[in-house]
Design a protein that fits this description.
- There is one protein chain.
- By secondary structure, the protein is mostly beta strands.
Length: about 90
């Protein structure tokens, strides 16, 4: 949060709140567990590929990438995108 005049403004989402020294500001960020980070466009061509069976079309090749979704002390999550149909899924351990 940053001060803009007499308001606090979130740098990420633009949420605004009147600045008041007498109250404590608590911000809770909610994230849908089904959200999958998506990589699109020209970036796909630079990703490595691996043998993985697509759950949608059965094709056996997919792009893959790693993403840290939780705390730094937890392992990364591996995502796949089918090179044929474009279906994106994650690997669960």
């Amino acid at each position: 949060m940053i001060y803009q005049g007499d308001k606090l403004v979130c740098r990420k989402c633009g949420f605004e709140k009147e600045a008041d020294d007498s109250e404590e500001l608590v911000i809770k960020v909610e994230r849908n567990k089904e959200d999958v980070p998506v990589i699109e466009g020209e970036n796909l061509k630079t990703l490595p590929t691996t043998k993985a069976i697509c759950p949608a079309c059965g094709h056996n090749e997919a792009f893959w990438w790693l993403r840290q979704l939780r705390a730094a002390d937890e392992s990364e999550v591996r995502f796949f995108r089918c090179t044929k149909c474009g279906k994106t899924w994650r690997e669960y351990d």
